[in-house]
Design goal:
about 280 residues, alpha/beta, 8-stranded parallel barrel, 8 strands, about 50% helix, disordered N terminus
Amino acid sequence: MTERSEVMNQHSTTLEQHLRARRDSGHKLLMPYLTGGITKDWVGYLQTFADAGADAIEVGIPFSDPTLDGKTIQEASDAALARGATPSGILDALARAGVGVPIVVSTYANLVLRTGADRFCTALRAAGVSGLIVPDLPLEEAGDVERAAAGAGVELALLATPATPAERLGEIAARSRGFVYAVSVMGTTGEREELPASAAHLATRIGQATDRPVLLGFGVSTPEQATAAARYADGVIVGAAIMRRVLDGAGPAATGAYIGALRVALDTADGPVGAADRRG
């Protein structure tokens, strides 16, 4: 049994505790993303991701109008929905998966609220899900989902962007659970040629507001970009670059090799590790 499996088999260990422990032991965090239901054998990708060094895995429940997602994730969502993917089907598959690292589900507020926040979060927990991301849920309207998630033992991670003012960023950092999602740019998800300067600035600002793990996403596509992000954040979330490979026909082994390259880059990255170091 791996170190990660042993940690996650302890029911008292939360997503945040797991990520903190990994970070505080000197590791940069890696959270790859996969759209649930994208292929017939999509659950097989999850184990490959874990074996390649993922500290947690984000699984997207596809939605017909993914407003914050760029072309690649939209294409992946369309493909999954065309295959008949449903929230209940994805959660049933996750309940049987047992990959040994935390699973964080992401989806849009419409699906959560239409189901009912309490019922939705209870279903997440029953499936073994540790965290939740709802990117289009305004902070002012997040109370019901926060309470439902907390009651179910699921940690709701909130997002901050380069345009988030200081007072609001402080509230996001305080109310977020599991980690804080640093959105590198004002835009949609997608691969980018270089990591924007706004990413480093945002990660630093969040790190000054909290010692909760900070994961940077939206546009991290290459090992070099992951290395650059790791100088300021506790780790990275990688989505579009993975889904582009899957959509182009890459199987679990090939996709796992890409994630393995990201893992190596993060493990050899220079720079501070942990929020205390970021604060200088």
